[in-house]
Design goal:
The chain has 474 residues and is an alpha+beta fold. The chain folds into 4 domains: 119 residues, Beta-Lactamase; 124 residues, PAS domain (Beta-Lactamase); 87 residues; 68 residues, Winged helix-like DNA-binding domain superfamily/Winged helix DNA-binding domain (Arc Repressor Mutant, subunit A), CATH 1.10.10.10. 53% of the residues lie in helices and 18% in strands. It is built from 15 helices and 10 strands. Strands 2-1-5-4-3 form a 5-stranded antiparallel β-sheet, with helices on both faces. A 5-stranded antiparallel β-sheet has the order 7-6-10-9-8, with helices on both faces. Strand 1 and strand 2 form a beta hairpin. It is elongated and about 195 Å long. 16% of the residues are buried.
Length: 474
Amino acid sequence: MPRAESVKDDSAPNPAAAGFPSRSLTAAASRLPFEAEGAFRRLLKASPVGLAITTFDEGRYLEVSESESLLTGYKQEELIGRRALDFGFYDDPEDSREIRRRLLGEGTLTNYPFRFRRKTGELRWGLMSASLFEFEGRNCILSTVTDVTDLRTMERAHKLNEARVLLASESATIGWWEWEITSGVVRCNDSYYTMLGYAPQEFPVTYETWKELLHPEERATAAAVVEEMLSGSREAFDVEGRLRRRDGSYHWVRGIGRVFAKSVEGVPLQAFGLHVDIHERKSSEERLRRFNEELDRLVRERTAELERSNAELRRETEARRTAEAELRALTEELARINNALHVVLRKSREESEGQVRRVVRALHELALPHIQSLKESGLNHRQAVHLELLEDALREVTSPDLLQLEEIQRRLTPSEFKIATLVRSGKTTKEIGQLLSISPRTVETHRKRIRRKLNLPARTHNLKSFLSSLHESN
């Protein structure tokens, strides 16, 4: 494995001047007996740790073990004659300088931690031990390296777990306990007590005192779970229950326990566990439960109210449908009656018009000829005037336009007929409004309606002339 780099430093002590020590591998290879040299080679090959011999002045490899080759990822022929500096072996070059300084000062180095880089570029952790000695007439370093990367990883994980446990134990919401089951001794941290309102270490905790603190509703269940752990039927437990506080109230706690030591026969000897404060969560769950119950109650009440409203609406809808059916039947009956009345009225009008025609015809045929005979009989002036007046009256009564005037009167409303009479007499719109105490605009509206009902839409047809023409003598 690459070792301490050669660093040129004029201020560093000269190994020879410093009395460079000679070690057990002292004789040069050339002076080693053949058997000793073979043993040395076998040692390099069989060494379980990375072993190397490097020159002190340049740091060049003279010998490396197979374990050294496996450790660095380089073949032995790739290392021999080259410097660790050539491979960028040390992650921190200062480690190389520090190793050299310590060897010069003390002659040996034991378990020096450092990070090294393998041929693949992977960084690993190693522990180096080294000694100065003379080899083949040169000042050299004999070093070994052990790869402790996995060990350091486990140490870091262990320290991290210790930090987590410490952090949890210092939390006001987590208490821990350690139970020596055979002796009954229980050790707890302060949070075990303070989360329940007790002073730290206020009373000795035992299995029995723990059961006494449990709420009566959870005591039997929780104790049964712990008994199963003590009997060996389970390795761990996880229960939730209420523990009595110092003020007598109860506090929700989650208890977690696990056996971590057993006898040869499998009997639990030690257990470790936590008390986790879950009171706020349980209180929130209880508030949520009450809220849901209240919500369910309101939903049920609202549903019942809606059902009552729907039932009432259905009754009202059915009553409305019944009323609508009755109204339709009544409307149909009224329509039949109205049709019958129209038939009767039409027949009555026809009979009345027929009767008037018969009267008019009788007057023309019977009365008017006699009046004409009387006019020719030589009446005096007085008699002639009265006879002429009588003739005019009869002609007025028997005029065909009289029937037309009656028809017009039937078409118009009383107000419209009254206005039509005033128009026929020559009254203006303003005068009609003054006589009837209505606005001229209202009079104009009635005039338009009269023209429409008399089929006189065109402005060229004078309403007054038309009405007056109905009273002119033939």
